Amino acid sequence: MKIEAITLREIQMPLVHFFETSFGRVYSRRILLITAHCDGINGWAECVAAEDPFYSSEWIESAWPTITHYLVPAVLGRTLSQGREAVSLLGKIRGHRMAKAALENALWDAEAQEKKQPLWKLLGGTRREIPCGVSIGIQDSPEQLLEKIQTELAVGYRRIKIKVKPGWDVNILEKVRARWSDITLSVDANSAYTLDEFEHLRKFDQFNLLMIEQPLWNDDLYYHARLQKELRTSICLDESIEQARDAACAVETGACKIINIKVGRVGGFTEAKKVHDVCQSHNIPVWCGGMLESGIGRVHNIALSTLENFRLPGDVSASKRYWKEDIIEPEVEVSRDGLIAVHDVPGTGYLVREDLIEKLTVKKETMRKSLG
Ligand code: OSB
Ligand code: MG
Predict the structure, then answer these.
(1) How big is the chain by its Cα radius of gyration, in Å?
(2) What's the rounded Cα separation, in Å, for the pair 32 and 58?
(3) 359 Cα distance to chain centroid
(4) 290 C-beta closer than 6 A to ligand 1
């Protein structure tokens, strides 16, 4: 496939319900989409960099110029046979993993279409159904949180994850467990705690949690290993794992027992597969994280989740939890028993709604190889 042109665009989409983590609340998303135009095929992907550099140092306004100044020039006009060949072409640029992932994944998408293969099979997936969980943000009141949990359980989700921070943690977990003593429950702190809170974090052990996700600093492994020795609850790392080597270090040092894989955070499908493989070889279960994606990023998460070692329910849930109208067709739906089915159709198995995307677009730029 010859990479003839690349289009970048920003679309804006209001969330159905605000989403609050330990670093703040979002009501609406600014989403960067990328299209790789190759031999009449359009490969699509989403850059998961957020509106602000809070979850990671990347944000939408850093990803855009990184892609236009450095990433696109490294691939434009080239002929690749596989999406994964983008990795070495982009290797000179340090960091900026979410920006790189967007470009690489668009090329995987184009490759799957060109080969008329399901993307999930091209990635090496084997699962035909993906178990789904939900991530529920911090709410205005505990009552509102309980109501939300009730709703998601009724829909059929297999795991409830709630966001926690100091002041919204043990008190909340007591209320949740008082009502549902045996649901599969986990928490995500997004680095809200420090070493001073080891004694406090020990109290989480009484709630029989599946895991506590990223309790300490985003760039730390060492102190997570110290903390894991003190806790019965499994630590799951999200922010700390940016590449397969981090996963190997985390596992070897005992910094976690579970890993959350986000394809954007680790820099694309190729590295995500490596993280998956490292964890599988150490018998560490993984699950697919989410970044409040539109349908385009969501269906890539579904494809990735078909790999064998995605053994725990992911934060990959239905379109309608996030959007009044999603930009893919059909929308992502979850069955009554909390599963998303994948099919034997080429590409992602979902159509991109270009007409709707055009309406939501607030900024657009196409880069072509100039002749000669
Ligand atoms: O830490 O997993 C996280 C959303 C934005 C940034 C970070 C995280 C999240 C979520 C939501 O937990 C997952 C989703 O439903 O997409
Ligand atoms: Mg997380």
Answers:
(1) 20
(2) 12
(3) 25
(4) yes
| The predicted structure's pLDDT at residue 300 | 98
In angstroms, what is the span from residue 315 Cα to ligand 2's centroid? 9
Query: Does the pLDDT at position 372 exceed 70?
Result: no
Contacts for 39 with CB less than 8 Å, ≥ 6 apart: 1, 2, 4, 114
128 vs 302: CA distance, rounded Å: 10
Whole-number Cα distances in Å, 312 to 137, 186, 363: 20, 11, 37
Distance of CA 29 to the CA centre of its chain: 15
pTM attached to this predicted model:
0.97
Contact of 310 with 129, CB cutoff 8 Å: no
Best mutation site among 47, 130, 236, 292 for ligand 1 pocket (most ligand atoms within 8 Å of CB)? 292
Structure tokens at 124: 């090496």
Please tell me the predicted confidence (pLDDT) of residue 8.
98
CA of 163 to the centre of ligand 1 (A): 9
Q: Whole-angstrom Cα distance, residue 115 to residue 50?
A: 32
Helix (H, G, I), strand (E, B) or coil at 100: helix
- How sure is the predictor about 369, in pLDDT bands with cuts at 50, 70 and 90? confident
Q: How far apart are CA 151 and CA 61, in angstroms?
A: 35
- Give residue 77's pLDDT: 96
Element (H, E) at 59: none
Q: SS3 for 166?
A: coil
pLDDT level of residue 22 (50, 70, 90 thresholds): confident
- Is the pLDDT at 342 greater than 60? The verdict is yes
Q: Atom 14 of ligand 1 has which residue's CA nearest to it?
A: 290
Confidence label for 371 from pLDDT (cuts 50, 70 and 90)? low
Q: What is the pLDDT of residues 347-360, one digit of tens each?
A: 999 999 999 999 99
245: left (phi over 0), alpha (psi -120 to 50) or beta: alpha
List the one residue out of 354, 350, 367, 347 whose CA is nearest residue 106.
347
